[in-house]
């Protein structure tokens, strides 16, 4: 009985996770959105990436102002340059990971 219950919980969790992530992509293929909406939606990836970037650079401390994580900030510089120059996501990610790994190795 416990094995069936566990399987049902895992399967139910997978379905509940799958529905909001996949169904919008399926539905958006069949609907023609207005241009203004498509223009608005085109800014969402850069907004999310910027929020994630600032979240990793800033260290939140309880009761104090946020501090800057210098290693993360230094790692952003070559990563940003590679992103601007190549406009290749794979190279940008590799440079960012390698830079952070080297900085953590030496500092």
From TrEMBL:
Transmembrane residue ranges: 6-28, 40-58, 64-82
* Source taxon at top rank: Bacteria
Matching Pfam families, A to Z?
AzlD
Q: Which UniProt keywords apply?
A: Membrane, Transmembrane, Transmembrane helix
Q: What InterPro entries does this protein's entry cite? A: Brnchd-chn_aa_trnsp_AzlD
Task: Return the protein name.
Answer: Branched-chain amino acid transporter AzlD
Q: From which organism does this entry originate?
A: Enterococcus phoeniculicola ATCC BAA-412
């Amino acid at each position: 009985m416990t094995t069936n219950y566990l399987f049902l919980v895992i399967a139910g969790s997978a379905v509940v996770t799958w529905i909001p992530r996949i169904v919008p992509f399926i539905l958006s293929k069949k609907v023609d959105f207005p241009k203004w909406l498509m223009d608005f939606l085109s800014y969402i990836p850069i907004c999310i990436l910027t929020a994630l970037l600032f979240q990793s650079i800033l260290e939140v401390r309880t009761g104090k102002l946020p501090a800057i994580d210098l290693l993360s900030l230094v790692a952003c510089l070559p990563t940003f340059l590679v992103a601007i120059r190549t406009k290749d996501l794979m190279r940008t990610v590799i440079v960012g990971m390698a830079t952070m790994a080297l900085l953590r190795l030496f500092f």
